Amino acid sequence: MTSVERRFSRKVEGAKLIHKVMVESPAMRKYKVRFNPLKIPGCHHLDLLSDEYWTCLAYHYTLTIYHPVGTAKMGPDSDPMAVVDPRLKVRGTGNKMSPILQ
């Protein structure tokens, strides 16, 4: 199995677990939570909820719901637009390293 296949396999297992929790847990049943049965374009030919469908869904419809990422400019203290210095210390925070890099 390639590294890509392993990553997709993990995504499929995660999607199945989330689906199970959403459909079968007492808390979700209380609020009558249901799975949206609309198929994603490109995956419509596959059986809904099959491993093949989840793999196709992960391939064609992977996105973030919130917290999109961005970039921060690196540069010397003389650059007013730089956020981190060349040693990845965040400017103006007393030499703290970026939490993403820790």
From TrEMBL:
* One Pfam family recorded for the sequence: GMC_oxred_C
Could you tell me which InterPro entries the record lists for this protein?
A: FAD/NAD-bd_sf (IPR036188), GMC_OxRdtase (IPR012132), GMC_OxRtase_C (IPR007867)
From what superkingdom does this record's organism come?
A: Eukaryota
Q: Which GO terms describe its molecular function?
A: flavin adenine dinucleotide binding; oxidoreductase activity, acting on CH-OH group of donors
Location of the Glucose-methanol-choline oxidoreductase C-terminal domain: 7-95
Give the UniProt family note: Belongs to the GMC oxidoreductase family.
What name does the UniProt record give this protein? Glucose-methanol-choline oxidoreductase C-terminal domain-containing protein
In its UniProt entry, the species of origin is given as: Rhynchophorus ferrugineus (Red palm weevil)
